[in-house]
Amino acid sequence: MSTRTAYRTCPLCEAVCGLEITLSGRDVVRVRGDRDDVFSRGFICPKGATLGDLDQDPDRLTGPLVRRDGVLTPATWDEAFAAVEAGLGRVAAEHGRESVALYFGNPNAHTLGGGLYLGALRKAIGTRNVYSAASVDQLPKHVSAGLMFGDPTAIPVPDLDRTDYLLMLGANPVESNGSLCTAPDFPGRLKALRARGGRLVVVDPRRTRTAALADRHLFIRPGTDPYLLLGIVHTLFAENLVAALDDRFAGVEELRVLAKEFTPSAMADVCGVPAEEIETLARELAAAETAVVYGRIGTSTAEFGTLTSWLVDVVTTLTGNLDRPGGGMFGAPPHGRTRWRKPFRTGRWSSRVRGLPEVIGELPVATLADEIRTPGDGQVRALVTVAGNPVLSTPDGPGLDAALETLDFMVSVDPYLNATTRRADVILPPPRILEAGHYDVALLGFAVRRVARYSPPVLAPLDGRPNEAQILAKLALIAAGQGVDADPALLDEGLIGAALAHAVADPTSPVHGRDAGELAAELTGADGTERRLDLMLRLGSYGDAFGARPGGLSLRRLLDAPHGLDLGPLEPALDALVATASGKVELAPAPIVADLARLRSGAGARRDGFVLVGRRNLRTNNSWSHNVRALAGGSNRCTLQMNTDDAARLGLAAGQEVWVRSRVGAVATVLEPSETIMPGVVSLPHGFGHGLPGTRQRVAEQTSGVNANTLTDPDLLDALSGTAVLNGIPVEVGAN
Ligand SMILES: Nc1nc2c(c(=O)[nH]1)N[C@H]1C(S)=C(S)[C@@H](COP(=O)(O)OP(=O)(O)OC[C@H]3O[C@@H](n4cnc5c(=O)[nH]c(N)nc54)[C@H](O)[C@@H]3O)O[C@H]1N2
Ligand SMILES: Nc1nc2c(c(=O)[nH]1)N[C@H]1C(S)=C(S)[C@@H](COP(=O)(O)OP(=O)(O)OC[C@H]3O[C@@H](n4cnc5c(=O)[nH]c(N)nc54)[C@H](O)[C@@H]3O)O[C@H]1N2
Ligand code: SF4
Ligand SMILES: [Mo]
């Protein structure tokens, strides 16, 4: 059979590589990096190269499942949507809307459905019980950005391609390919940084593959990054290295006073980085032509996640590197950035059981099980999960698993029958990856260049099954009481109409005063989702504004550019973006300054025994890539890494079975002594622990490995953001 080639963005990680996919009929026969892609220029990793295996995995569900007499049974789409209407309707009628909870998982950041329909779903369900993977990930960064810049989405991105000095903490982009910094071929960009004479310093309790690329690697005790960064801030002030900051910045004097007590020698004691190193880092950051600090998951899902996220941007700012080329810059999504209008604050409501504050409209997923288990008014009785696997990805996963079993109703939008979805009453699987269009609504705003790229569906869906966007639209319509027969396009047209009505009435809009109906008629696209995307692109900062800016972006222009459009490097954007009450960048926001008390009180608490951290492997993607045979094995194993000297001291040998115990649970796993991990620290990857009864992932089931979140503790949270502490868990280790 003849073959054809399609170009498409990889939906698996934040690097958004352009792929060249060769198909024979509906079969993927080869995937390569697209050499003509304007952003990734041919880069690809093993996950992208096996996208065909994932897409055609025989364990992917091809139609809905509905629980009948206790058993998940194949059903038609009509039957499945009717079961959702009945199930959600019953719970909401009996217990109120608050009794329905939502959990949105990570792949929502990589699908058009997740990008464009979760808002409507949430609104239609009308509950405050909203949870997501953000509270086991980047939520601290949203809080620090909200408090500093007034906009929780205004997260500075390291300008990788132009910086002279990069201080990286708690990230391993050679394996993860980067996060909150969308940069295909992150490893190549780091090599280029060094090749042009720049410097890379990596701070990590493990000597990672990224550390191996660096000029220097520094071990740090898990959870103590804010001490290191405060030592740097102290030195910057003490040695007069702080850059001249204009009146767009508030709080510099307050920082100077605050930092006094955090001397490098006191900080070295806590974090394990020598005082001279802390001082050297401060001097180097200040002396570099341009410099930037970048912190990721190891600093975020930690005891002081928000404080660390704040300090990362404080050091970038104090050294004069915020919002300038080579420093920390703000992304510029081609579909435009929605200006944050309300003054940012957290705690607009609180969780019922533990009283944990709301953050950007959600509650900490670490308390979802409490909300399900604890009787009373507002108890969660039903759950909707979209692209999430919280049983493997959130603290005390087994506890959550048991709680899910007690729900009155659960519906999951997910292609797999896995640890979480096996508890559902209805599973609605999205079709094959290649059957939906792709545009990175969430990620292009964190890209290191201004790029735009849309991939239309490569394959038509079989037998009229809905794509993910249509599934989510349908759920929203059902929750809004429109019934199972409502056409998903209704939702799109309603949203388009509302957005256009707003735009034509807005004096600052380039379409002010025009006729909304006429503009709607001009939109192109094969379906409502594409029409909405066209609208966003045309009204975005680079859009054609429906003819007002000829040559500007539109869906059609992106369709004509399958390798993407490069709009150039990032440009300063701070002035248009700051949305604090004062109109200035707040370098010492009150809630953060108050949390320093918690940090001071922790300073003496030196822990004996081991602390647990996580790790990622290039050939994994959280919990759901283990069903691809080509990616299993090799270094991709669920072992407990422990420093070689620690292992010798305990008389433990490589390959030996050991137990690991925390306050919450225990697992048995295999020991991997290693010189690359700091003494006193052990590491276990997350995402393993497949093969629970009732799941269907036949390859993953055969991989040995345990659920690392058996050990993580739902009571340990970063106070300001409610984010779970997944790195720095006290554990004991021993042999049977
Ligand atoms: N101990 C520990 N735990 C961690 C972490 C850690 O470092 N250590 N990391 C945390 C982080 S950063 C994250 S982001 C979370 C992730 O937490 P989750 O998002 O809850 O988990 P994932 O493993 O990403 O599971 C994704 C789910 O989406 C499904 N899926 C895949 N593609 C699609 C799609 O296109 N549509 C739909 N509807 N479903 C899809 C998969 O089958 C799977 O069920 O895990 C967190 N958990
Ligand atoms: N191959 C692959 N790529 C992925 C994923 C995947 O599962 N596999 N997941 C994706 C997701 S959801 C995300 S959020 C990103 C995450 O992307 P990264 O943040 O780059 O994630 P990791 O590779 O887990 O790197 C975190 C590092 O933090 C270190 N660390 C642990 N505790 C501490 C600490 O207290 N301080 C410091 N300084 N370091 C610490 C760990 O040793 C580890 O090397 O990756 C994404 N990309
Ligand atoms: S690095 Fe990420 S985006 Fe690129 S091919 Fe690999 S998984 Fe896909
Ligand atoms: Mo993540």
Automatic annotation (TrEMBL):
This is Anaerobic selenocysteine-containing dehydrogenase. Keywords: 4Fe-4S, Iron, Iron-sulfur, Metal-binding, Oxidoreductase. PROSITE patterns: 4FE4S_MOW_BIS_MGD. GO terms for cellular component: membrane. Residues 3-59 form the 4Fe-4S Mo/W bis-MGD-type domain. Pfam families: Molybdop_Fe4S4 (PF04879), Molybdopterin (PF00384), Molydop_binding (PF01568). Coiled coil: none annotated. One of its GO terms (molecular function) is metal ion binding. It comes from the Bacteria.
